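Office hours follow-up: a student asked to see two folded examples consecutively, so here they are.
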Amino acid sequence: MNEIFYTNEFTEVTDVEKRAFRKQQLQRLSQLSDSARQQQNLALQRQLFAHSAWQAAQVVAITLSGDIEVATQPLIERAWAEGKTVVIPKTLPHRQMAFYPYTSTTQLARTSFGLSEPVAGQPIAKSAIDLILVPGLGYSRDRYARIGFGGGYYDRYLADYAGTKLTLAYNEMAFEHAEWPVDDYDILLDELLVAGDGQNDKN
């Protein structure tokens, strides 16, 4: 009985720490200037488009980015231009999600979370996705740990995903070590591309 209480108490403390970090990151990212955001997005695009995982992928999973996130519309348009299939997430009951094909004619609807999701179509098999660009608020360089927005959708989806899990991070999203609690169920990424690592690379 005491062990169960201790576990629940520890989980509650961890959740509080994560919520505090998310709040801090949301404020930090909202203060980025437009010019800094643009420069970092361009640096990330250069790194991603030169990456072997991007070049080899035929099916790429990408989110429709919000204001504080790394801009994904240029990535989507590049993928289309290269003949790749783009798939975007749709949330499902019980904190599950699936990815649906996304084209310029896909009909979208806004959810209660403020996200735009496809309203029709058939989900694509997880095994058919070559590359997932995983969104989040913070990432660690040492373990490729990630902290998302708190829903747990990606951790559940990625638990049995066999393809490449890659993320793009503004400098303000990257930390040498995780400054938030990393739980056993938090899925680690395969690679992290940070804007500052490519801002001096114009090739």
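And the second, which I mentioned at the end of office hours:
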Amino acid sequence: MRAKPLFVVAGAVGGTLVATAAFVLNGNASEAPKAVAYRDVNKIAAVLRDHGADGCEADATRVECRHEGRYVAGTVLTPGLTMDAALSTWRTGVAQSALGEQGPFAILQGPNWLVTGPGALMREASQELGGRLINCDRPYGACR
């Protein structure tokens, strides 16, 4: 048997570890490649409208709408705002709470964007946008 160069073995092991980590962290290894990064919110806004969101107001990096009377928003992260910082704020549900909403909501997380709204809408949007779905039981409650 011929000896394999060390970097070939290390590369195979590293690739396996990365794939395993993606599966463990996402719960589904097919989710990660499906979501893509966006430069603006145009695609996100279009998907939300296609699934019944209305009254949408948008600028280049943020869209806010309503869906069956509930708050819906999406943002593309701008330089200086990290995903961890944005996600930790969005998980609180502060925007929903400020509007008097106390029910469950969900967050859809992509590589450089977030979308929030009712769980059913976020599940529908995830079919087109991809990403990781995070369900929250209420503003300032638990998210998983």
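Two things to take away from it. Helices lie at 6-26, 31-34, 42-50, 83-90, 94-98, 119-129. The chain has a mean pLDDT of 83.
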